[in-house]
Amino acid sequence: MRVLLTGPTGTAGSATLLVLLADPGVTSVTALSRRPIDTQHEKLRVVLHDDFTDPAPLASLLAETDALLWCLGIGQNDVPEAEYIRITYDYTLAFARALLVANPKATFIFLSGQGSDPTERSRALFGRIKGRTERAVDGLGLARLHHARPGYIHPTTEKPSRKALERFSMFVEPLFRALFPRHMIDADQLGRALLAAARGATEERVLDNVALQRLAAGAP
């Protein structure tokens, strides 16, 4: 399987990258990033791409891709609203459309999130825009499509630049895990679940946190 991964420096993407590289059934991994990454591996290719609203230069790469794992994203409080919409909605739609043209049989997996609301009635910007994106991608007619909706993603790879809030969450994580096990997932678990979905382990379009936990464990 040839996998294209976006967001390889994020919490979910960096852990998913390691899962992909360790899996013998994944023959090649292309990490699409704005900046170089530290990870090196014989089957890893890093492609630097600056404008994610324009996937046209990557048409040949998309044509050779069996599965596109869209892990690119940002927190709603980290950028202005317009930029959040651009990153979450515009980037995703541009690449989903391009993949459909380049390789209609490929799988597209959108890393959405718990609380995503396709009706856009959510009070949270995150819920509305993630939901809007899911609904728009649904309308494209992709043959194989999944929306992953994890809850809290517990980091399993070290990021030296981890924000203070993320560092604080590392301390409260054991309590959260004990009280709300159905609403959190380890980042490497999420990576295994995304890979399982890409392989066709489920027909479910929307994968909530519990479904992702099951896929990571190899359960039907």
Describe this structure in words.
There is one protein chain. By secondary structure, the chain is α/β, with parallel strands linked by helices. The chain has one domain (2-217): NAD(P)-binding Rossmann-like Domain (Rossmann fold), CATH 3.40.50. It is built from seven helices and nine strands. The strands form two sheets. Strands 3-2-1-4-5-6-9 form a seven-stranded parallel β-sheet, sandwiched between helices. A two-stranded parallel sheet has the order 7-8. β1, α1 (11-22) and β2 form a beta-alpha-beta unit. α1 crosses α6, α3 runs parallel beside α4 and α6 packs across α7.
Question: What is the topological layout?
Answer:
Elements: E1 2-6, H1 11-22, E2 28-33, E3 44-48, H2 59-63, E4 67-70, H3 81-102, E5 107-111, H4 125-138, E6 144-149, E7 152-154, H5 164-179, E8 184-186, H6 187-198, E9 206-208, H7 209-217
Parallel strand pairs: 1-2, 1-4, 2-3, 4-5, 5-6, 6-9, 7-8
Helix pairs in contact: 1-6, 3-4, 6-7
Concise description?
This protein is 41% helix and 18% strand. It has a single domain (2-217), classed as NAD(P)-binding Rossmann-like Domain (Rossmann fold). The model has no long low-confidence stretch (mean pLDDT 92).
User: What's the number of structural domains?
Assistant: 1
Number of β-strand runs: 9
CATH topology (level 3) name: Rossmann fold
Largest sheet: 7 strands, parallel
Continuous helix count? 7
Report the end-to-end length measured between terminal Cα atoms: 21 Å
Shape: globular
Unreliable residue runs? none
CATH class: Alpha Beta
Largest sheet strand order:
3-2-1-4-5-6-9
Strand percentage: 15-25%
How do the helices and strands follow one another from N- to C-terminus? EHEEHEHEHEEHEHEH
Main structural class: alpha/beta
* Rounded Rg: 16 Å
What does the average pLDDT come to?
A: 92
Name given to the CATH homologous superfamily = NAD(P)-binding Rossmann-like Domain
Q: In percent, how helical is the residue content? A: 40-55%
CATH architecture classification name: 3-Layer(aba) Sandwich
